[in-house]
Specification:
About 55% of the residues lie in helices and about 0% in strands. The protein is mainly α and about 90 residues long. α4 (about 40-50) crosses α5 (about 55-60). The longest helix has 14 residues, at about 40-50.
Length: about 90
């Protein structure tokens, strides 16, 4: 408890840095598979690494996704939300 009160409670995350780290993660490329297929998703991931760009920048830049589609497909919050199997609401 003392650790939490004296240290953890006072931490302040750099949200912009964290967001950029997530957006630069090649793990996001896996979310592209259902939308554009494995081959194009792989191409996007390789190009993002080579060009030091985000998966989103490359996918939109190549015309594989629109900005709106990228917002939907590459939303890390949707990928990390808890899923309850069998709940169709």
């Amino acid at each position: 408890e003392a650790f939490a009160e004296k240290f953890v409670a006072k931490l302040d995350a750099d949200r912009e840095h964290c967001e950029r780290q997530v957006q630069q993660s090649m793990a996001l490329a896996t979310a592209l598979n259902p939308a554009i297929g494995y081959d194009k998703a792989s191409e996007v991931a390789k190009a993002a690494l080579k060009e030091d760009k985000t998966v989103r920048e490359v996918a939109v830049g190549k015309g594989y996704l629109t900005e709106a589609e990228a917002d939907e497909v590459l939303d890390p919050r949707k990928m990390t939300e808890r899923v309850i199997l069998g709940d169709e609401d």
